[in-house]
Protein 1
Amino acid sequence: MATRKSDPLDAMVGARIRMFRVNRGISQAMLAERIGVTFQQVQKYERGADRIGAGRLSRIASVLGVSVGELFEASGAESPGLNSLVRLLAEPDALRALKAYARTTDPRVRLSIAKLVQSIADRAPAAKATVARLDTFDRDKRRGFGGEDGLPQEGEPQSHAAPVCPR
């Protein structure tokens, strides 16, 4: 008997399972226990690495409190970009961040949050270097090098840390 490989639909169903599971505060281990598999198997389902049989899919839907149909996208009825949105929401902490954002009501705060996250994402590769420089800056300050602003005072040895330049 030939083994069937998973396909993009399996990945999409897995992403939706993860989205519903996280939204309901159910851990992978809890879901696994309720459907009779290991949490590693749930991870494979959510990644789309393993296919899910009809019976198991029905049990998963029942545990999550949704219909089996809700684990599938309606073809043509939804926007073409929804598949990527579902995957995005399945990312760790994405749903939590979105829920926190939704609780904010001030449009200026919402705009500030969006700009902050966007600027962090745009600078992601450089962020590690900046953090390392700031850690060195803080360490030197704790060791007593520098005054209130962390800069060396007259007669103090100079730190070898890279200067922190505002952008």
Protein 2
Amino acid sequence: MSHSAQFDPLSQNTTSHLDTSTQSPSESLQQVADVPVFKVYNPSNFVNAAPAPSLPDEYFTPTASDLKAAQATLSARTQALVNAPLQLRATREATEKAKRARWPQTTIRIRFTDRTQLEKVFPSTDKIRSVYAFVRSCLREDVRPIKFILYQSPPKRDLKVSDPNVRDLSLADLQLAPSSILLLRFEDETLNHTNISAPLAPSVLALATDLPMPPSLDQDIPPGGSNHPQSSANSNSMSKPGEKKIPKWLKLGLKK
């Protein structure tokens, strides 16, 4: 019997990818259970990638539309902060409900100290204990009894199951939706060294693939080397020899 369909590791619905027309119910359930619903990524080497190409002066010069958009965003955020204390409880609950409806699933990526990564999609209503259970199930048998902590950084925030302010909240309530990267540290410090391979089960490591490369900066810059063609004439007169380039987002902050 052939299985020609490909399985998406992030898909929660695995039955549609399997041909079970000639199998008994028990055989079908066993095959579904054996299909991985997560991804494993080898340690990334992005830090050793080639340096980004030098950007032209025009790239760092904000246009009138850039300034207008930044001002509109700043005004909207300021207005939201001013109106926040005036919101009724029903309004706040409606806002939270809308967020949960918008992100019914949360993608969690767990990064080990050697930069090996596990990735799985959880229902946003799940608690953090579901993430702990998933990670523990992927560890080697000899490492599973060792306690570990999942945390975010920066700023550092421990997501301990023993913390009542964490364990009783959903992934959405913990502000982890729609996607988040969590770091992991073991109580056994010997497992936390960067030169120690992630203690994952051999069956899990066998599924590892290379992490997709991030998009190149060249793809974001139009032909000619400038993302603001209309301002090239003015920028040439504003630039001075030896002048240090300042990103446009920093210029916006200096103009406040």
Protein 3
Amino acid sequence: MSVRQTIIISCFVLLALGKLGDSLRCFECTSCNGPVNRNNTKTSREFNGTEYSCWKLTARGVATARGISNSCVELNAGGFGTWCCKTDLCNGAILPVPVAYLVLLMAFGSVTLFFKGS
């Protein structure tokens, strides 16, 4: 099997595995003003990820809370804000790169290698 075929097959396998787990994982805390990560902050998981959103609430930069909800509404007014997102651990201080972007990058690289080798 050539390197090109291995890369293409790997991309399809990653795409298939990405859809197997239909859940959403979010940071959950009530007084978490500093950076959060898996080591210092509780995470929660909902197994029907399509209906839920992670959220982050800030109040004038003084108080921050994070969690998961099935009814998140974004708001930003007068120093108070609520932000909603739908990827794993997206309500942290630093957003992780979604797996979909990495798979897309790998697929683009595979297609480029495929046509370059032809």
Protein 4
Amino acid sequence: MENLRDIPGITLIALDVTDIVSIRSARDQVAAVLGEGKGLDLLVNNAGMAVSSAAIDTDIQLTRKMFDTNVFGMMAMVQEFIPLLMLSNDPCIVNTGSTAGLVPYAFSSSYNATKAAVHSYSDTLRLELKPLGIKVTAIWLGGVKTNMIQQKPIPFPETSYYAPIEALVRKGRAPPDNLMTAEVFANSLVTASLKRNPSRRLKLGSGGSMMSWIAWLMPDFIMDYMVYKVLGLGELARIRKSAAKAN
């Protein structure tokens, strides 16, 4: 983000959403930049981390850290920045969810759960803050070319029941080459969020709109079959069945 430092009108502020002291420091710095009695028009909760692993193999400490970042950090940000938002004439909160919170995207169950929590929290928060004049929207995000999506996956444990299909899982979960860039995503987010009446749910990122419709319209058994086949789970069932016969 250093490339933003010299752009007029932009102030970079350090923030760790898992640390309440850091959040309050950032809030106070934002208040100082805005000036006495000035309000914050837009709060975007976009901090996040992802862990890709089978549910029964996932490190619980990593899962706790992910919930701290993706869910509890977001909640703390909302609580601490409410006073500044209340000073604005047209405030809005945007929370970044994901299409992963809509579909049973195997081998990221913990991450999926954090994003489903973001969706549910945002829907309820929208109703609670409506009489206070604060709008709330959630992003149902598809693919965006960021450092998070390009990080190396955690290797399957050698003792994992899923080790025989690790290569198939990696192939099935590989991101496409034509992901939306972070710059396009940021521009789309700001443009949509600053509308007089922003959508309750913004479908952004590559495949964001399509996956949202699929999750709504496709019967569960078809969705389950597609994920089961694409991510090699059917092959694992075949391997285990063959092994059982051999014994």
